[in-house]
Amino acid sequence: MKIKDITFKQLVEHSSGSKGLCVSIGPFVVRIRTKEKSFLQTFSMLYQDFEVSEGEFVDFHIDMRRPTNVRRWVNAQIIFWVDGIAPFEPFPLDHAFPLFEWGLNWCIGRSAHQYLMLHSGVVEKYGKAIIFPALPGSGKSTLSSALGLRGWRFLSDEFGLIRANDGLLQPMPRPVPLKNTSIQVIQNFETSAVLGPVYPKTRKGTVSHLQSPTASVEQSNKLVKPAMVIFPRYQEGSETIFEELPAHYAFLKLSTNSFNYEVMGLKGFERVRDMIDSCTCLSLTYSNLDDVIDQLDKRLVNESSHDG
Amino acid sequence: MSICLWDESAVVYCGLSGQTHILNLLAYEILQLLQESPNSILSLISQLELLFEIDDKAVLETQIQELLSNFESLGLIEVTDSEN
């Protein structure tokens, strides 16, 4: 049963009860307890295709609660609690959803060391995954979102999860937090794109979340082998330029891009080494989304023909 | 310690420190020789002279000495008295 299959009234009842609302998000089960209806409205829209879990085993127990002081009612705030601790300062109540998203990132980043976690977008087509590792502001979210909106399978915007034991990519197609000019870029690129509320003046500027493609969410359990590692960089007015990267340089870039390469020790080294050995490693400078999507498609077709 | 070589550069992972280092070909060859068996500095120099066919042996010796010193400080090798 998906989130969209239950009524809003049921959603509120579940999430305000002691058992909470348990949702499968990629490989994780997240239990959410809250009484905040406006948060739940946004959550139910952006996570509508995600499966409700019976919650036999929960990875993260999250409570979204107002403080107990005067800020409960005056200039109301919201606090993110996980496993009984509140790791962040309170946020304005109307920014509860971005707080939940950043909080969940924090939970995953500090504990999911069964994966090599890359700060990357991930998409797939023809059974081949492309990893886009990049620093914030490089355009990876915009590019991954655009590919998802053109029918590519969208696996992730923030976390490229590489399974430690076999190097396969684990999808986690959560909503994409588009920032600042990217919001308008994606709205212009695809008028049917579904975005949530606009949150101005967050720590990352203006943010609005893009709903992930239904088909991608439905394939959250379909793991895939990485085929290409492409380091993207948006540059206004640039042509689409791909450049091959020397393997040792790609290794350095990929390992430093990871959230937990050092924590994983030898396993981290082996996973990065295997990707460098088996993937085409490129840098990409672009400005035109349609052009870069066309060229990426051709490159994947070319990769597939070499396999065959 | 795990090493992989691509073209003329290598990447080594040191299990003791948990650090990863990028190596040039000379550094890679020294580590490979030392992984095969403990070796004296003089023996390393003579083997690497053959491998790299370098005319200016003094330069090569200096480079090798510097690399060994760096390796030791990074925990990649252990220098014992018997080598000196």
What is this structure's SSE topology?
The complex is a heterodimer of chains A (308) and B (84).
Chain A: H1 8-16, E1 21-25, E2 28-34, H2 37-46, E3 60-65, E4 77-82, E5 91-92, H3 96-111, E6 115-125, E7 128-133, H4 140-149, E8 153-156, E9 159-163, E10 169-170, E11 176-179, H5 181-189, E12 195-202, E13 205-210, H6 214-218, E14 226-234, E15 241-244, H7 247-257, H8 261-264, H9 266-278, E16 280-286, H10 289-307
Parallel strand pairs in A: 2-3, 7-14, 14-16
Antiparallel strand pairs in A: 1-2, 3-4, 4-5, 6-7, 6-8, 6-9, 9-10, 11-13, 12-13, 15-16
Chain B: E1 2-6, E2 9-13, E3 20-24, H1 25-36, H2 41-52, H3 57-74
Antiparallel strand pairs in B: 1-2, 2-3
Helix pairs in contact in B: 2-3
Radius of gyration of chain A: 19 Å
The major β-sheet of chain B equals: 3 strands, antiparallel
| Helical coverage of chain B, percent range | 40-55%
H/E element sequence of chain A: HEEHEEEHEEHEEEEHEEHEEHHHEH
How many separate structural domains of chain B?
Answer: 1
What structural class do you assign from the helix and strand content of chain B? alpha+beta
Structural class of chain A: alpha+beta
Instruction: Output the strand order for the largest sheet of chain B.
Output: 1-2-3
Name the helix and strand elements of chain B from N-terminus to C-terminus, one letter apiece: EEEHHH
Q: How far apart, in Å, are the first and last alpha carbons of chain B?
A: 24 Å
| Assembly type | heterodimer
Tell me about this structure.
- The complex is a heterodimer of chains A (308) and B (84).
- Chain A is of the alpha+beta class and 308 residues long.
- Helix content of chain A is 34%, strand content 30%.
- Chain A contains ten helices and 16 strands.
- In chain A, strands 6, 7, 8, 9, 10, 14, 15 and 16 form an eight-stranded mixed sheet that branches.
- By secondary structure, chain B is of the alpha+beta class.
- Chain B has three helices and three strands; from the N terminus they run βββααα.
- Chain B has a three-stranded antiparallel sheet with strand order 1-2-3.
- In chain B, β1 and β2 form a beta hairpin.
- Chain B starts with a strand and ends in a 10-residue tail after the last helix.
- The chains are: A alpha+beta (308), B alpha+beta (84).
- Chain A binds chain B through residues 246-248, 251-252, 255, 261-262, 265-266, 269-270, 273, 276-277, and chain B through 2, 4, 6-7, 9-11, 13, 15, 18, 20, 22.
